[in-house]
Amino acid sequence: MGNIVWGEIIVVVIPIVIALVLAVIGFVLKLKKDEMTGMSKELAELVLKIIDAAKDKHFSQQEILDIIKEAQDVINEGKKLLGA
Q1: CA count, 13 A, side-chain hemisphere, 43
Q2: d(CA 47, CA 42)
Q3: Would the pTM of this model clear 0.90, i.e. be above it?
Q4: CA distance linking residue 8 with residue 48, whole number of Å
Q5: Helix (H, G, I), strand (E, B) or coil at 9
Q6: In 10 A of CB 42, how many CB atoms?
Q7: Closest to 71 (Cα-Cα) out of 52, 51, 48, 43
Q8: Furthest-apart CA pair in the chain: how many Å?
Q9: How many CB atoms lie within 10 A of CB 81?
Q10: Among 39, 27, 23, 47, which Cα is nearest to 74's?
Q11: How far apart are CA 81 and CA 1, in angstroms?
Q12: pLDDT in tens, 5-39
């Protein structure tokens, strides 16, 4: 009873370790996907602000400030994405 059969333990441990590693990798990739979704959303909002402001071919001060705010949001998302 004191004899440990390493072959049987390894057969059980290796799949558990692989499952844990894949779970961690999946979680990290899920987080990165969420960050990329945030960046895509911010870029889309910036483009929409520019298009809305350019419709009448005249940019008001408020429209320019809105565009700058959206651009700052894009920069902030980029910093998050880069981990800064």
Answers
A1: 7
A2: 9
A3: no
A4: 60
A5: helix
A6: 19
A7: 43
A8: 86
A9: 13
A10: 39
A11: 54
A12: 777 777 778 788 888 887 887 777 677 776 667 77
